[in-house]
Write a structure and sequence with these properties.
Elements: H1 2-23, H2 26-36, H3 42-49, H4 53-78
Helix pairs in contact: 2-4, 3-4
Length: 80
């Protein structure tokens, strides 16, 4: 039972993160998905999107910051 409860918790956490990523602005969502779900390198994302590697790096970083901010808000609401 402990294993199935842990699996359910992991599934719900993953689903929450996917929902958060999907809620990002398109410019951040696309590069975060390409980087962390599709496994593309910054160079590959730049090539596919026609952006500079630096621009992709910045968008990935900002997208992750937004994900962290949203997670923190969710966490704070749950602790109230």
């Amino acid at each position: 039972k402990v294993d199935s409860r842990k699996s359910n918790e992991d599934y719900l956490a993953a689903k929450e993160i996917v929902n958060i990523i999907n809620s990002l602005d398109e410019q951040y969502r696309d590069v975060v998905i390409m980087k962390y779900i599709d496994g593309f390198s910054t160079k590959e994302i730049a090539s596919v999107t026609g952006q500079t590697e630096n621009n992709v790096y910045v968008k990935v970083h900002r997208g992750l910051q937004k994900v962290k901010e949203i997670l923190k808000k969710h966490e704070n609401r749950e602790n109230i």
